[in-house]
């Protein structure tokens, strides 16, 4: 179709259905195509903290002693995952929308707004249009509108359309339950009751 594949992005998460006859699915693939070689890519809008922000250039060389990385952070790469504790702010990941996620609605396979936000910020400019042809409860449109883009969606289920409209109203009134982009993911300390093997398991009980 004459489109150019720029990136194949893996969005990986640690939650979801546990399969019993195959490995549990823990990623989704995003394909980013452009129509031409003229396209928008706002890297600075989506940089993430560098691993070693204080690293400098080695000698010899004209840049010896100067910072070797971008002070705004690094390119997030094409695997959007839960990363190890690599900078003091903690973890950068986009958790799967699940039952206890603040954004969860009636839709069974809704996407987190945060996932779309990174695409919207990097691949569009303010006032651009974002179209989601399978818009569900409107996560992509919400991400677009939050960042001053214009949005349109198509959805065949009236209940999802109604929910999308309701969420848009909540967004405009500042009441949309929303997980901010880049918010650190909660890490269990190991002391929580659910992090420990129940005593009764050792006694052979279920
Ligand atoms: C994976 S869901 C998208 C969820 C969405 N990203 C969100 O976060 O709410 C796909 C949606 O496409 C809708 N859909 C499927 N076929 C469609 C069609 N031919 N026209 C319009 N919507 C359709 C489904 O009803 C479903 O809500």
Sheet with most strands: strand arrangement? 2-1-3
- 3D shape: globular
> How many distinct domains?
1
- Percent of residues in beta strands? 5-15%
The number of distinct β-strands equals: 5
Low-confidence stretches: 82-93
Binned, the helix content reads: 10-25%
- Judged by helices, strands and strand pairing, the structural class is alpha/beta
Ions, cofactors and other ligands present here are: S-adenosylmethionine
Would you tell me the overall average pLDDT? 82
The radius of gyration computed from the alpha-carbon positions, rounded to a whole number of angstroms, is 21 Å
Name of the CATH superfamily: Vaccinia Virus protein VP39
Provide the CATH architecture: 3-Layer(aba) Sandwich
CATH topology: Rossmann fold
CATH class: Alpha Beta
Number of helical segments with 4 or more residues: 4
Put the structure in a nutshell.
The protein has 206 residues and is of the alpha/beta class. The protein has helices at 113-123, 139-146, 158-172, 199-202, and strands spanning 4-12, 27-34, 79-80, 129-132, 150-153. The protein has four helices and five strands.
